[in-house]
Design goal:
This protein has a three-stranded antiparallel beta sheet. A hairpin with a 2-residue loop joins β2 and β3. The protein has six helices and three strands. The two termini are about 20 Å apart. It has about 120 residues and is mainly α. The radius of gyration is 15 Å and the shape is elongated.
Length: about 120
């Protein structure tokens, strides 16, 4: 992830509802959630949730897939891991053991979890 992509991602996450949506989608795993369920759980109107989902999708942090009449949204684990790795680049002045826990978290966001999006 480059700096421009990171700025777009952080911009999308800097709003309370969007941060809440990403966290919900991370918890929901590769099965994701329908837009209506996201709106209901986030206690946001359907038109408002559509705006937030569009912004998160533009940032690359989530993806959508049509399943019959529903649109299912999932977290883009690869992009989220890339954001953590971007933050941890050149970590700790040559003492990588300090950053090891964060590096392990970023590594858990393996692309294999994101197969549904491909």
């Amino acid at each position: 992830m480059d700096q421009r992509q990171a700025l777009i991602a952080f911009g999308a996450l800097s709003q309370e509802t969007r941060l809440h949506i990403v966290r919900m989608l991370v918890v929901s795993g590769p099965d994701g959630m329908a837009a209506g369920a996201i709106a209901e759980k986030a206690e946001v109107s359907p038109s408002n949730i559509s705006f937030h989902l569009k912004e998160l999708e533009r940032s690359g942090l989530i993806a959508q897939q049509r399943e019959s009449r529903s649109i299912i949204y999932t977290a883009n684990y690869e992009a989220l891991g890339g954001l953590v790795r971007f933050l941890m680049e050149d970590c700790c002045s040559g003492h990588p053991e300090i950053c090891a826990p964060a590096a392990e978290v970023a590594a858990c966001c393996a692309p294999k979890m994101n197969k549904k999006l491909q």
